[in-house]
Amino acid sequence: MKTPTVSVIVPTLQEENYIEKTLSNLQKVKTPIEIIVVDGGSIDKTVEIARNFADKVYSIRKRGISIGKNYGAKYAKGDILVFLDTDVIFPLDFVEKTQKTFEDSTVVGATCNIMPSIFRLDAILFFHFYNMFLRALTQIKPHSRGEFFAARKHAFLRVNGFDEQMPCLEDHDLANRLSKQGRFVFIPDLTVYESLRRIQKLGFWRVIGTWFMDYLSYMLRGKPISRAWQPVR
Q: Structural domain tally of the chain?
């Protein structure tokens, strides 16, 4: 079976402090990939920096993480779309592990372990539990966080990508919809690390409480309570 090609899509907004490290690390990946950055109107140096590293850089007027992700997917050439947040640290073999996962033709989507990039005991314990929870859910009603989200492009387009009307939990929603097209799986031997900048700025329990209420609302009503998801920079 042909090894699927991969396009990595990174949505950005005011990310000059993170974008160079993220994109320069993507260039170190040995497996050939297409790097796409979609910017939602940054007024800092995000776009300028991205043009030095990415294969394609798009600046769009409409803001919204789902809008940016969908726009990048529209112009991606890869068989597999990998969506990464800008502040995520990833192992350089993540593409190989993703390709191996999608060599199974029944797989249409995937996520992986997500852990904090700094040592903080409460966050480490919570994320460890959350990873176990998401892994268990893939057997029932798949969900995913957005720090790492992989999808087979033809299945992604068939379900119309991310719901641009959802201010948050768009990744959970897409994982659920993709699972109706095939298997949404958890890659157990892959871990990416996020910066915890939201938790550091807003507080651990405030962020976790918001996640819980939005998630509960989504499970009960099909949409989160939050009407907007403000970026933290």
A: 1
Helices (H), ranges, 13-166: 19-27, 46-50, 65-75, 94-102, 121-137, 153-158
Res 48: pLDDT: 97
**Residue 219 belongs to a domain:** no
Output the pTM of the full model: 0.91
Q: What is the pLDDT of residues 96-122, one digit of tens each?
A: 999 999 999 999 999 999 999 988 898
Which residues are CB-contacts of 98 (< 8 A; sequence separation ≥ 6)?
6, 80, 82, 110, 150, 187, 190
CATH at residue 158: 3.90.550.10
In a domain, 226, yes or no: no
Instruction: Label residues 91-119 b or e (16+ Cβ within 10 Å = b).
Output: beebbbbbbebbeeeebbbbbbbbbbeee
User: Domain limits at 13?
Assistant: 6-198
Residue 107 lies in a domain: yes
Q: What is the pLDDT of residues 165-176, one digit of tens each?
A: 888 889 999 999
